[in-house]
Amino acid sequence: MRPGAEGQQLQDDGERQQQLEAVLERERGRGGRPPALERTTDGLLAPLYYRAVFTDEPLTPEWARGLVSHLLPE
After folding, report:
1. What's the CA gap between 2 and 38, in Å, rounded?
2. DSSP 30
3. Which pLDDT tens digit goes with each residue over 20-68?
4. How far is the CA of 71 from the CAs of 5, 40, 53, 54, 74, in angstroms?
5. What is the rounded CA–CA span in Å between residue 55 and residue 72?
6. Distance between CA atoms of 71 and 8, rounded to whole angstroms?
7. C-alpha to C-alpha distance for 45 and 11, rounded to whole angstroms
8. For the segment 2-33, what is each residue's pLDDT rounded down to a tens digit?
9. What's the CA dihedral at 51, 53, 58, 64 to 10 degrees?
């Protein structure tokens, strides 16, 4: 890892968490009941990063919608 890369990665991760929390907060403001930030991170960001980094599978809108559908209450 290049010097400073770990610090940059932590900053990027923090920014993603903040962006995701803002999305969840907007949903709460509309009266929705979004899942907790940790559950959302585990259910959305982790699979996205895994697929992007470790596989050759495409990140399609349909695939992303499937991830979201598993998180939302019915």
Report:
1. 29
2. T
3. 999 999 999 999 999 999 999 999 989 998 999 999 999 999 999 999 8
4. 31, 7, 22, 23, 9
5. 26
6. 29
7. 15
8. 555 555 554 567 888 899 999 999 999 999 99
9. 40
Query: For residue 2, how far is the Cα from the chain centroid?
Result: 25
Gyration radius of the chain over CA positions: 14
Give the residue carrying structure tokens 């010097």: 3
Q: Which residue has the tokens 């803002």?
A: 22
Structure tokens, 51: 């697929």
| Separation between Cα atoms, residue 28 and residue 35, nearest integer Å | 10
CA–CA separation, 21 vs 2, rounded Å? 29
pTM above 0.90, yes or no: no
Size of the chain in residues: 74
Token pair recorded at residue 72: 């939302």
